[in-house]
Amino acid sequence: MNSDIEEIKSRLNAADVIGEYIRLEKAGANYKAHCPFHNEKTPSFMVSAEKQIWHCFGCQKGGDIFAFVMEMEGLEFKEALKLLADKAGVPLRRFDAQAEGKKNRTLEILELATKFYETQLWQGAGKIKIINYLKERGLKEETIRQFRLGYAPLGWRNILQFLLNRGYSIEEIKKTGLLVEKQAAQISKSQIPNPKQIPNSNDQNTNLNTTNYQPQATSYYDRFRDRIIFPIADIMGKVVGFSARVAPGGDESQAKYVNTPESEVYHKSKVLYGADKAKGEIKSQDFVLLVEGNMDVIAAAQAGIKNTVAVSGTALTAEQVNIIKRYTNNLRMFFDMDKAGEEATKKSLKLCFERDLNVKVVELPEGKDAAELARSNPTLLKETVEKAADALEYFFQKVFLKENPKEVEGKKKIAAEILDMLSHVSSEIAKGHWLKKL
Ligand SMILES: [Zn+2]
To answer: ∠ CA 254-161-241 to the nearest 5 degrees?
Structure first.
């Protein structure tokens, strides 16, 4: 074990490992950064190139690369050991697969499922219908492969049977969120099909191989059927969940997008779609582009804006802001103040101001979304992102347009809106600047 640890340390550079998670700046022979483990305005987190260790002078945390990865990813030591051994290409001599940890087992199943869905897309049922659809939407083959899109075919027990055949138990598969329990179907009829339509394993009309069924398997079925699969990865690129879009010509009465539920590895509020692929570019461009949906991320990346991430169907969360702040302090946001998302947008803005992120707003031409523009006019998309306006300026302009500043009532409303927003701005300079204008 000890020799494994030494071997891993000799092959990996601490600044490289840590630099994948946070933005490091050179400081003499060492590196400094804003500490990812406590909230701070001036960097007190140091990485020593000579000693290959890290230390935060603010919260006093510190240690080697194993300690860092454990703290950052919430892993046990043996899980961090496995992760860094894989990264370093060191085979672990006395590594007990059984003791690998439940979390790794769940991640293993999710990775296998991703491969299953990819195979279904490229070689299976999705080969013509889905690939054509994705190409019609402007995606190139290499982009589809890069984002590991897949296809969940029609049928009730495709992924379930595949994973059972690989030796995973129902209990283990359940933890990934890939299955739905049959009883649940009676609770919400709109979301889930009639349980009578779900074949039991002993039904003759099911064309699946039924010999390997465990008895309890009959009460579960695949969550995703006839859907395009978007794997959702954590910051290190490990698949932790899925977002699934109804296939073209599929049952449109069902929800357009279905996501896997929260699990021990998937926490919606802590994931930014695309961040694993975008993080390097976010660091080098020193800003992140925040868009609404997964397709926007993929289309923007293909159009050459690779520092793009998405919140998946929620307003920005404090945890997501923390992830962003590890890589940059500058955020550009695509949004549409006219639609129902206005309140969510305001909430996101307040959060950014509280955490002292510099926010700019990218305003799209009427009626366009990022994915659409990336396809039809990538140059215009890039220019629009370049021309992003200061978020407070943008917000206040909107307020002035909405209310009439010549009337007393309008004046009051404008002042209230602006003061409310400014109360979340942590920078005194920005606050003073805007208060003067009021
Ligand atoms: Zn700290």
So the answer is: 55
Edge-first strand order for the sheet with 239-246 is 150-152, 227-233, 239-246, 257-259
Q: ipTM more than 0.95? A: yes
Which pLDDT score is estimated for 187?
44
Q: Comparing C-alpha atoms, which of 111, 63, 65 is closest to residue 84?
A: 65
**pLDDT band at 304; cut points 50, 70, 90:** very high
In the block, tokens 């029609």 appear at 154
Q: Which residues surround ligand 1, an ion (CB under 5 A)?
A: 35, 37-38, 56, 58-59
Average pLDDT over residues 144-160: 96
For 365-391, what is the HEC assignment?
CCCCCHHHHHHHCHHHHHHHHHCCEEH
pLDDT tens-place string over residues 229-270: 999 999 889 999 999 999 998 877 788 889 999 999 999 999
Q: What is the pLDDT at residue 310?
A: 94
Whether 97 is in a domain gets the answer no
209: pLDDT confidence band, cut at 50, 70 and 90? very low
Same domain, 282 and 250: no
Mean pLDDT of 127-156: 95
Residues 248, 303: one domain?
A: no
Cβ neighbors of 305 (< 8 A, separation 6 or more) are 289, 374, 381, 382, 385
Q: How far is the CA of 356 from the centre of ligand 1 (A)?
A: 17
Domain residues for the domain of 9 are 2-91
> Which of these three, 236, 266, 296, is where a domain ends?
266
Domain for residue 179, yes or no?
A: yes
Residues 311 and 432 grouped into a single domain: yes
Beta-sheet pairing, 330-334 with 358-362: parallel
User: Distance from the CA of 43 to the center of ligand 1, in angstroms?
Assistant: 9
Measure 318 CA to ligand 1 centroid, in angstroms.
Answer: 17
Check whether 285 has a pLDDT greater than 50. Answer: yes
Residue 313 — very low, low, confident or very high, per pLDDT cuts 50/70/90? low
Tell how far the Cα of 55 is from the centroid of ligand 1, in angstroms.
Answer: 8
Ligand 1 centre distance from Cα of residue 79 (Å)? 23
Question: Which residues are within 8 A (CB) of 327 and not within 5 positions of it... i.e. 6 or more apart?
Answer: 22, 23, 279, 282, 283, 288
